[in-house]
Design brief:
mainly alpha; elongated
Length: 97
C-alpha cells in the first residue's frame, strides 16, 4: 500500500471495505458514488448483476458444454438462489450431469 504523506489517511477506527484497496482509492470511489443520481446507481447495480450472471453462465457452460441455453439458465438460477429455494418456488430439481 502507498504510504505517501500526500494521500489521505483513514480516520481512526475506519475499517477498509476491501483488503486490496487503499483508503485513498476507497475515498475516491465513495466520493464518486455520492455524485451519481439514483438512476445511475441503479444502472451500475444492474450492470454488476448482469456481469455476475454472465460469469456464472460461462462457468456452467464450461462444465456442461452440451447443455442447451435453457438448461444453462436453469443451472445458473440454481447456483444463484440455491436448490432448496428453486425447488420450493419452481418444483424443479437440479438436472444431474
Amino acid at each position: 500500500m502507498d504510504t505517501s504523506p500526500d494521500l489521505p489517511k483513514a480516520p481512526p477506527g475506519y475499517r477498509l471495505q476491501w483488503d486490496d484497496t487503499p483508503y485513498h482509492v476507497e475515498k475516491l470511489l465513495f466520493d464518486h458514488w455520492r455524485t451519481l443520481t439514483p438512476r445511475e446507481k441503479a444502472e451500475l447495480g444492474g450492470q454488476a448483476c448482469q456481469g455476475l450472471h454472465e460469469g456464472l453462465k460461462s462457468g456452467v457452460r464450461a462444465r456442461h458444454p452440451n447443455a442447451s441455453d435453457d438448461e444453462l439458465e436453469l443451472r445458473v438460477a440454481f447456483l444463484k438462489y440455491g436448490e432448496e429455494l428453486m425447488h420450493r418456488v419452481t418444483g424443479l430439481e437440479l438436472p444431474k450431469p
